[in-house]
Fold each of these.
Amino acid sequence: MMKSIIEVQKKLLPDLLQIMQKRVYILQHIRVMQPVGRRSLSNNLGISERVLRGEVQFLKEQDLIHIHPSGMTLTEQGAELLPAMEEMVKEVSGLSIMEEKLKRALNLKEVIVVSGDSDQSPWVKKELGRACVQTLNQRLEGNETIAVAGGTTLAAVADMMTPSDKQKHTLFVPARGGLGENVENQANTICAKMAKRAQSNYRLLHVPDQLSVEAYQSIIEEPTIRDLLHVIRSSNIVLHGIGDAKTMADRRRTPHDDVEKIEQLKAVGEAFGYYFNQEGEVVHKVQTAGIQLDDLKNIPCVIAVAGGASKAKAIKAYMKQAIDHILITDEGAAKELLREL
């Protein structure tokens, strides 16, 4: 029924749908930036302050936003209504069709596509984070162990984490030990932040990266480390990102010889310290403690979060692992993926 109403609206009132999309877009920005001033919102949206003034006034009159001296925020009604409006915009803009096409093409459990391209607009990464938190909360029953990987996208998920009753008895753990990331992007840091924002519990894995094989074997045999690794590898839920191979190698200050190997073997994607070529074959692996690729096949819920058109090749390569994933991505990556596929 919804589809038929939207089709009628597209024919009779195309302007109405464009206006609705624009207003939802404004509300989405306010949700992730609140409290936000008009000038800052105007810059982020790429809309002139003059045009934005009229839209903001309309949204205020409809009791969807508050305007304070500190900036604009969503009202309770705005926060409640926005998810329903987003669903309608998904239908209108074809995001629902993209989700279904990608789900079939990549053979996944579920695909969620948020509007925008995180390569172009930093706020889209926050929308990916919000969608991930929402997806996670829908799957929690209580007492789960959630393993969290590192990276900038997972850091955005941590920023959007909010407490819920189901999270009170969950345990957050890092999916892997150190991978040479900056401290704010390391799994330990993100795991602790998520747990604190969820008002839940966490344990940290203190295993450094760049160890010799002998030192590595010695550390993982320590009883406390061994016990924690068992907890991590038998998690109920895993949250992780997917990286572009070259970007990840640079960010982790990878030794020159390994960078050459990664480039020569045409790696395009990275996850959990594994580097993949376009066929999804592992061409290089960083030795770290924690979840290994084989472990993912035994974990009931694996959620991958990755967006931006530049990530399409990496997502496609990684998804050839044939793990029953939920993929949360953005419009930029989805369009590029559908072209690639």
Amino acid sequence: MVIEALTSADFAATNLTDGLRRADGRPVEWIIAPAPVDYPEALATMRARAAAIAAGEAAEAVWLVEHPPLYTAGTSAIESDLLQPQRFPVYDAGRGGQYTYHGPGQRVAYVMLDLRERGRDVHRLVTNLEGWIVETLAAFNIEAECRPAPRIGVWVKRPDKGVLREDKIAALGIRVSRWVTFHGISLNVAPDLTHYDGIVPCGISDQGVTSFEDLGHLVSMEEVDSALRLAFENRFGPTVR
């Protein structure tokens, strides 16, 4: 199962403060990669961990990484949205969504959760992933909002750039196999935003992208990681390192 986006009706019915906890309270392993991770290695590691979770051989996990500069294509990617195919490596991600960028200064959180223990509700999962990001940003006094399809993700209003202008600060794309999730979210802390020029990010050409740094918030990755962990625990339950 690949998650593309919530429909407008789904979005209207969701609650960003809902929560998606395990009944047994078992903690999720919280892992932070100490160095940049190549994308093929990340895919292989995620798939292996998700398979082990499905088989009852491993605990759920959230894996926080940075990648070298690259583009990934989701299952709905349109070839014409890859504007500069030679600029960075391009990988078929196998997740929902279209083209996106990953690179230094962006926190990617790969989320491997067992939905058999969390209600088997994929739309509720997506809503809580978005709410997790919104809550994390609020810890830094950044007001962000979510939008219905096709603009899945987390957005910041930019009236300084024009009426109704919004910039995307975080993206998400999820795949679910045997009721276990993998892939996850990406949050722009201080990436080189010009690297997005090589694609039409998530297929949306009339809005932009932003980051903590672009919004004037100079924070460390460690500070963002701490806020991510607290907000995750508020929604999904305890973590352990």
Amino acid sequence: MRILVTGGAGFIGGHVVDLLIARGHEVIVLDNLDARAHAGEPDYLNAGARYEWADVTDPEAWLRLLPGVDAVSHQAAMVGLGVDFGDARDYVSTNDGGTATGLWAMHRAGFRGRLVLASSMVVYGEGAYRCEAHGSMQPPPRARAALDAGHFDPSCPRCGRALIPEAITEAAPLDPRNVYAATKVHQEHLCAAFAREHEVSVIALRYHNVYGPRMPRDTPYAGVASIFRSALEAGRAPQVFEDGAQIRDFVTVADVAAANAAALTVDLDQSFVACNIASGEPRSIGAMAETLSAAFGDAAPRPERTGRYRLGDVRHIFGAPDRARDLLGYRARVSFEDGLQDFARAPLRESLQPVRTGSVRP
């Protein structure tokens, strides 16, 4: 197959490119080497791929690359919570605008292949919860006053009891709690509308907390694993927000790349379907910080629980990977302990340097 991978020079996209080429596919990459994630052209680019340095919001770039393409892996996005609401325009223009531009170009080019969208667990907002008295529920956003008082866990809005977190499924209602999350929901909706109108199959992969080699180093747009790893590498204690008990699912980039390869090639009789891509081994952020610190050795500083919070964060979110298993044959292969042990020594990527655009590397 000939596959177009947007964001294919990035963290997840680069691993997807490597795996697709290893499996014999022809790969074309569209990437703008965004300075928030790249210090320049990375040294791990796959010689078997064709790279075009252009932006996903550039319709001419899409139209140049789409002819003959059998499938599109849309990984390009601005990720993370960012610095503050001042990032909103960049998130919307890159994520929503880039996706709309790509879909417009696919429409113009008569594309009828598979489209895989890199989505995120952030579309759910808070995860799934159960009250012992009132059953399943999705709590409202946490109030600033409660967070200031150190009350981080949501409670039942009917009786005030502490809620019990559970694995969330793809059937849960979408409830984005920050700008990034809102753009991921919109990307899914745009792709679903395109799929219905063009008889194209779209699979949205809702990534949970992905980590591994090539994460951008020490940037507010990186994941928490990279931020903790950067601190430890500099001899600083990881700064764990809240009390560290918030639960996530940490999944390796190798497992995520495998899910993408399966999604690009699996038979599908639906126009749009979403899948959680998770390890199935939820852990607290505090436990992740402790495990990563231990992997650096006895002399490494131990994590510090700060009590600070970010209003756009959610408390507990971890996904049930059953649909990905049944539809894609996906199972995470790397354990939490083994993955973090490897990540402690994995190379990270420098960022925050001028961006290069417009050149083509054959």
Amino acid sequence: MARYRLRFLLQEFDLALGSTVIGRSLDCTLTIEDPLVSRQHARIVIAGDEATVEDMASRNGVRVNGVQIKGATPLRDGDRVRIGTQDFVFCRVDPAGRGHSKTTGVLRLCAKCRLPYPREMLACPNCEATEQTDEETLSGSFGTENQTAWSVQLLVEALERALTLGRVADAERIARRATAQVEELAAAGGVIDAKALAALAVQAVATTLASNDPTWAIWVMDIYRRTSRVPPLEVVEHLAEAAAKHAGIVSGSLEELLMHLSQAVRSAKDGEIEALARLEQVRRAIQETAASRGESETTGEWPGPS
């Protein structure tokens, strides 16, 4: 008898005979921490050599290969199942665990919408674009750095939607997961994808603005300092907004970032020069505000969230 698995970010989940419930609840067989996933979102049923997936009256539905399903839908080896912002690949393996047919489930990232889809499909089922990013093929040989970039990308999508829906607690939980993944890669000496970091930085600062917790803005400044990178102007503009609300708390981190990047001015590109100049403007604004209030430039270290 054949065996079935779901592959997600190079992790595989065995599907036992009977019903596998997927959702946000800890009571589910497979739990997904995504604000767009319902508590009990989808059910996969394995009956002999047949497999089906069905939507459990979720808010956002279930898609198979980009098409939203209605009722129990058969699954075939290599099918892509989207639940919330998460993509799974349904795989069939033989009883010995050896690959059967398409067990590698090769995925590519769409160059337009940046979502993964099966390599054998001629066009992205999400946006119908045919442009592919071969350098970011998601396969069994997918490197740790690219894997992290893809994982962070999915989390950033979930984070942005959580903020749009006003679910601040969900946004903070997702931000913790995303920043932890970046921290793990940085600690291992890996190269952090610049676009993935910038996208996360924007949403992290947005989380600070929504939650009134400066931790996330401080993390953004700290990660750019530790990786010796100049934050893009879009990130700097968001930091400027956060600094206006939490001037005394973030000023120390901003000073450290600018001091560390002071040598970067000599070799900076046009966009980086503009970003550095804007950061300097933010610092001066903080200093002027502190001076006008008769306060010191810093008010101590931020202890972080409890």
